[in-house]
Specification:
The structure holds 2 protein chains of 2 kinds. Chain A is α/β, with parallel strands linked by helices. Helices cover about 30% and strands about 30% of the residues of chain A. Chain A has 2 domains: about 120 residues, Periplasmic binding protein-like II (D-Maltodextrin-Binding Protein, domain 2); about 90 residues, Periplasmic binding protein-like II (D-Maltodextrin-Binding Protein, domain 2, 3-Layer(aba) Sandwich), CATH 3.40.190. In chain A, α1 crosses α9. The mean pLDDT of chain A is about 90. Chain B is of the alpha+beta class. Chain B is about 40% helix and about 20% strand. In chain B, the strands form 3 sheets. In chain B, strands 1-5-6-12-11-10-7-9-8 form a 9-stranded mixed β-sheet, with helices on both faces. A 5-stranded mixed β-sheet of chain B has the order 14-13-15-16-17, sandwiched between helices. Chain B has a 3-stranded antiparallel β-sheet with strand order 2-4-3. In chain B, α7 runs antiparallel to α8. Classes of the chains: A alpha/beta, B alpha+beta. At the A-B interface, β5 and α8 of A face α8 and β8 of B.
């Protein structure tokens, strides 16, 4: 059972782990190495519990109240909107969600799109919504990894994927045709935690805000 | 082809334990409402779309199960039960004097699989106080909601009270272009404070209302939060709201629930629907509100009988889930007595069963003759507290968990079982 004064924070595996842990250290809440957290997955310390979960699972942990707070990329929030509060732009983990096509492809701006586009992505919801808003019909192929491969073997016309430096795209002879959105790490909060344990949760929120370089 | 034994996705079967907890919670809620003078009404599961259109927002309408009935009318399965009650008050109850106190219980349906547990059918119990305005009525409904949560057996809970007009006043007063205001509303509805901050940062004029909007999720606390907010607002609408909240809070102290009430000026709700005091009830360590309600003075007028109104509903599924998960789930009595028999003892078993039920006990008489060992297996299979094995009127044995089996005359078995003694 969670103790009343302990605030549980969900941290995502992958590229945001180190930034999130750095922020926790800077805020003085807890000092944890990625290695230790990776081994234990759940670390209880005075006043704070840190849990390590897959990025796409962070909103679920927070929405269900298993974690009071979560650190998660905006890209995940686009894909799984929920009942949480999105409180702070933590200003790390910058990346872009882009439409990428093979370098040799004729596809570029909307005027070059065929009546039906086939797109492979790990972000089916965001992808459909973005194209639908532009009046473009898409057939979304949901993949779970190595999305870059799909256009090279003729499965799809292009992909919608996250990129920070564009290197993986270049290595796979893909180029960016459009940007769907820019993402950074966000701090999200469970709606009930903010209300039932205001003091404990708000104090952690303001320490994280400060650590992220936001004055207020 | 195998029939889909799991049922339709999004619709749940409730097995005996869950169903019993849910029913007991529903009965305690309705009983508490009755103690406050709220009369029970039952409205149908199906409503005409014309009626629902009057009361529901676009999103709510989109989520309805709609179909044409035999006469070509568009109808829908209800997604909430306040609008049907409003229809009743303006229609069949138009002769009834206001204020009216009504309560209801029943399932509501949604085509969307909710994000939690993929449920499309949930259960709501609610109360409506129609025809009364002002803080006394607001406080009555909030106190009733609190007592209802208690009545179900939820031990730790809290009620957050806010005011829709506080927000409306701020939005009136804040100097922003209309499209930015629309963005602010959308960001708040999505609880996205990152978007809200960037919207407000981009505007040159900074007013006290700006600051209030940015601090929305933190505008919570006791009486002192009203003074703090009062020092910041410069508009009449918000000031009136704060004064009303102060009165409601004092009344709730008189109702005896001052210690579970928090003021929440940043409560984010459907502001197109609510017109005054709003509130939410939270249970312990549960990620979302189990009770929601507030004042909706505009609804009844749409049905041709203008009247102020306030009310709330409790999510019955969440209550029973909370009770099931509690460290000590409510003790539900198993079957009290399992009555097994061999042919010469059947009459005795049936008579004994009737007697025990007269005393309010749960007694199950077997449907087939059994040997002693078969009877024992059956006893444990149905989870009864006692086994009474009748071989004839003169040969009745009584077994109870952890005790030795005794042979007693049937009337003595009945007397001891019903007396609760050994």
């Amino acid at each position: 059972m969670k103790r009343d004064e302990t605030v549980a924070i969900a941290i995502p595996t992958g590229v945001l782990t180190s930034g999130a842990l750095e922020l926790l250290t800077k805020s003085g809440l807890t000092r944890l190495s990625a290695e230790e957290l990776g081994r234990r997955l759940l670390v209880d310390q005075t006043g704070v519990r840190v849990i390590l979960v897959r990025p796409a699972d962070v909103p679920a942990y927070v929405d269900h109240g298993a974690a009071d707070l979560g650190i998660v990329g905006k890209d995940i929030l686009w894909e799984t909107p929920g009942s949480h509060y999105e409180l702070v732009d933590l200003r790390f983990g910058d990346c872009r969600l882009v439409l990428a096509v093979p370098s040799a492809s004729r596809l570029n701006g909307p005027e070059t799109w065929p009546p039906m586009l086939r797109i492979a992505t790990k972000y089916p919801r965001t992808t459909s919504a973005w194209f639908e808003a532009r009046g473009q019909a898409v057939e979304v192929v949901r993949l779970h990894g190595s999305v870059e491969l799909a256009p090279q073997v003729g499965l799809v016309d292009g992909i919608v994927d996250l990129t920070a430096t564009g290197r993986t795209l270049r290595e796979n002879r893909l180029r960016i045709a459009a940007e769907l959105g820019a993402s950074t790490a966000r701090l999200i909060a469970n709606q009930a935690s903010l209300k039932t344990r205001t003091e404990a949760v708000q104090s952690v929120v303001s320490r994280l805000r400060k650590a992220a370089g936001l004055d207020r | 082809m195998t029939p889909q034994l799991g049922g339709v996705p999004g619709f749940r079967d409730l097995l005996p334990l869950e169903a019993e907890i849910l029913r007991e919670a529903q009965e305690s809620l309705l009983a508490e409402m009755r103690r406050w003078g709220y009369r029970h009404v039952i409205t149908p599961l199906v409503e005409n779309m014309d009626v629902l259109d009057l009361g529901l927002g676009v999103e709510q309408r989109r989520r309805l199960f709609k179909f044409a009935d035999g006469r070509g009318d568009m109808v829908a399965l209800v997604g909430e039960r306040t609008v049907p009650v409003a229809r009743l008050v303006a229609g069949k109850l138009r002769g009834a004097a206001l204020p009216l106190r009504l309560c209801y219980a029943g399932p509501v349906l949604s085509t969307d699989e909710g994000r939690f547990q993929q449920r499309r059918e949930t259960y709501q119990v609610g109360a409506e106080l129609v025809g009364a305005s002002g803080p006394v009525a607001d406080a009555e409904v909030i106190a009733l909601a609190a007592r209802c949560m208690e009545a179900t057996g939820i031990r730790r809970y809290q009620i957050d009270v806010g005011h829709a007009e506080f927000f409306h006043g701020i939005m009136d007063a804040v100097r922003l272009p209309d499209e930015v205001k629309a963005g602010v509303r959308a960001a708040l509805a999505a609880r996205d404070f990152v978007a809200l901050e960037s919207l407000l940062e981009g505007t040159p004029l900074k007013s006290a209302e700006h600051e209030l909007l940015l601090r929305f999720p933190a505008l919570r606390g006791g009486r002192e939060i009203l003074d703090a907010a009062g020092g910041l607002v410069r508009n009449r609408r918000s000031e009136v709201a704060l004064a009303e909240l102060a009165q409601v809070r004092d009344l709730l102290v008189s109702h005896g629930i001052g210690d579970v009430v928090n003021l929440d000026l940043g409560a984010i709700r459907d502001f197109d629907y609510y017109t005054g005091v709003i509130f939410e009830g939270y249970g312990p360590d549960f990620g979302r509100p189990v009770a929601q309600g507030g004042r909706y003075d505009a609804l009844l007028a749409r049905f041709g009988r203008p009247a102020p109104a306030t009310g709330f509903m409790i999510q019955l599924d969440l209550v029973s889930e909370m009770l099931t998960r509690a460290p000590r789930p409510p003790a539900l009595k198993p079957v009290d007595a399992a009555l097994a028999w061999t042919a010469p003892g059947l009459n005795t078993a049936l008579r004994l069963g009737s007697t025990l039920r007269l005393f309010g006990m749960r007694a199950v008489v077997d449907t087939q003759t059994r040997t002693r060992s078969e009877a024992n297996a059956w006893w444990h299979a149905i989870g009864a507290a006692n086994l009474v094995y009748c071989r004839s009127d003169a040969d009745v044995s009584w077994s109870s968990e952890g005790r030795r089996t005794r042979n007693l005359p049937p009337e003595q078995v009945a007397a001891r079982l019903a007396g609760g003694g050994d």
